[in-house]
């Protein structure tokens, strides 16, 4: 997530920079630094921002679980934490999911795959240029 996307997310949530800092448990200076592009948005903040947008907009409730959308076989479902915890609408939020037949080692690797998937794509579409 870059500074422009962070700012759009904050605006989608209807928050000032100060309110966003309080909501995320970070400093106002960090919010300003992200939006200006002086600092990279850390993975835990990016994850929380996507979660808040999905929750606020009610997107998660209307979505098809990822294992159904991707037609995952039973053996893959059984070893995936998204299926185990019935979180197929928020699979991008959970580390260790088994997309592309492998568990992801870190957040950046996971996000490269998730950002191309329609499950997270529904949230990311809100960040598209008007």
From TrEMBL:
Ranges where the HTH cro/C1-type domain occurs: 8-37
Protein name: Helix-turn-helix transcriptional regulator
Entries under InterPro entries matching the protein: Cro/C1-type_HTH (IPR001387), Lambda_DNA-bd_dom_sf (IPR010982), Two-CW_dom (IPR054687)
Organism from which the protein derives: Dissulfurirhabdus thermomarina
SUPFAM superfamilies documented for this protein: lambda repressor-like DNA-binding domains
Molecular function per GO: DNA binding
CDD domains linked to this entry: HTH_XRE
């Amino acid at each position: 997530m870059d500074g422009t996307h962070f700012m759009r997310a904050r605006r989608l949530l209807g928050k000032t920079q100060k309110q966003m800092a309080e909501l995320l448990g970070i400093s106002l200076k960090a919010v300003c630094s992200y939006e200006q592009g002086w600092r990279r948005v850390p993975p835990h903040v990016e994850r929380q921002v996507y979660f808040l947008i999905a929750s606020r907009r009610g997107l998660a409730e209307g979505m098809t679980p990822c294992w159904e959308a991707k037609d995952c076989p039973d053996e893959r479902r059984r070893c995936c934490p998204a299926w185990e915890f019935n979180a197929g609408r928020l699979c991008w939020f959970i580390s260790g999911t088994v997309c592309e037949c492998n568990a992801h080692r870190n957040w950046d690797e996971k996000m490269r795959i998730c950002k191309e998937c329609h499950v997270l794509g529904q949230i990311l579409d809100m960040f598209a240029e008007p």
